[in-house]
Amino acid sequence: MTDGQKTPLTRSTYERLQAELEDLRTRGRVEIARAIEAARALGDLSENGDYHAAKDQQGKMEARIRQIEATLANCEVVDDLGTSDKVAPGTVVSIRYEGDDEVERYLVGSIEEQTEGVSVVSPASPLGQALLGRGPGETVEYEAPGGTLRVEIVAVGQ
């Protein structure tokens, strides 16, 4: 999120990220180190596919560690997400774009909160900002790259 805003996370997501971070820092790093060492034992590193694959995997794992650390350092744990009839960070909202019959579901929050079948929209995005604090039956407008869009809030909650 931008402008110093904290990323809202549910307690379960916060704990899941903490566990993932601990696992990557311990078991993950040990396994990668073993894979790199085993690949080194095979000889010439310049043409050693196992070595390069292990180093690539190590880079991806370290990037994920940094991503989780940054998320946890800039988050706010919110225990009561989705308990009201108003859109708040962490709630799922069903909306219908003006002129469209299809209802779309979005989670207003962090990508780390994403669940299967629901897209994520950041509370800091134009759509997220327009939805926050609003309830079912309300119509909101927001500026998109292609112009102003209007959406009706069909439902709020899981």
Automatic annotation (TrEMBL):
Q: Does the keyword Nucleotidyltransferase apply?
A: no
- Keyword Transcription present in the record's keywords: the answer is yes
Q: Name one Pfam family in it.
A: GreA_GreB_N
Q: Which UniProt keywords apply?
A: DNA-binding, Elongation factor, Protein biosynthesis, Transcription, Transcription regulation
Residue ranges constituting the Transcription elongation factor GreA/GreB N-terminal domain according to the UniProt record: 8-77
Transcription elongation factor GreA/GreB C-terminal domain ranges (all copies): 84-156
Q: What highest taxon heads this organism's lineage? A: Bacteria
The GO terms this record gives for MF are: translation elongation factor activity
Cited function: Necessary for efficient RNA polymerase transcription elongation past template-encoded arresting sites. The arresting sites in DNA have the property of trapping a certain fraction of elongating RNA polymerases that pass through, resulting in locked ternary complexes. Cleavage of the nascent transcript by cleavage factors such as GreA or GreB allows the resumption of elongation from the new 3'terminus. GreA releases sequences of 2 to 3 nucleotides.
HAMAP family in the cross-refs: GreA_GreB
- Classification via PANTHER family: TRANSCRIPTION ELONGATION FACTOR GREA (PTHR30437:SF4)
Q: Which family does it belong to?
A: Belongs to the GreA/GreB family.
What's the protein here called?
Answer: Transcription elongation factor GreA
Say which species the protein is native to: Aciditerrimonas ferrireducens
Originating gene: greA
